[in-house]
Write a structure and sequence with these properties.
kinase; binds magnesium ion; alpha+beta; Alpha-Beta Plaits; binds 2'-deoxyadenosine-5'-diphosphate; about 150 residues
Length: about 150
């Protein structure tokens, strides 16, 4: 089964959207296998967003993501990496479809509520940045036979 990294950003935490976002993944049928809350240090933010270093929005992005607590999660399930991206919607909430997380709760690209890994390579890299191996749980869910055929 695939795993992906999803994070409620500081604006999502401040606005009380943690439960909403977790609920969407739970109701879809995905399995929560890791969860923690922390305020991201600058060095970690610069590592996490290394691909954007040098871009005009980089400094603002780092300041935003380090500005308050985040909720970091690992979700597991069939095709969860791409599915999480679809559930989040486009990076710019103005372009995100209604019904997606960003299309429902966001307005500005610099306050887009949620992060999700964009590929299997990113998922592996980001899970490794934020979680130790023993912080990821393997457990059975009897309900899975009603979610997967
Ligand atoms: P995503 O978060 O959808 O993976 P990304 O990796 O391209 O998007 O960018 C990371 C974050 O940087 C994004 O969530 C918001 C911010 N960002 C991206 N493009 C931006 C832009 N053109 N102006 C301002 N902020 C931007
Ligand atoms: Mg990205």
């Amino acid at each position: 089964m695939e795993r992906t990294f999803v994070m409620v950003k500081p604006d999502g935490v401040q606005r009380g959207l943690v439960g909403e976002i977790i609920a969407r993944f739970e109701r879809r049928g995905y399995k929560l296998v890791g969860l923690k809350m922390f305020t991201m240090p600058r060095e970690v933010a610069e590592t996490h967003y290394a691909e954007h270093r040098g871009k005009p929005f980089f400094e603002g992005l780092v300041r935003y993501i380090t500005s308050g607590p985040v909720v970091a999660m690992v979700w597991e399930g069939k095709n969860v990496i791409a599915a999480a991206r679809e559930m989040m919607g486009a990076t710019d909430p103005q372009k995100a479809l209604p019904g997606t997380i960003r299309g429902t709760y966001g307005i500005d690209v610099g306050r887009n509520v949620v992060h999700g890994s964009d590929s299997p390579a990113s998922a592996a890299r980001e899970i490794d940045i934020f979680f130790k191996a023993d912080e990821l749980l393997n457990y059975e869910r009897p309900l899975d036979r009603w979610i997967y055929e």
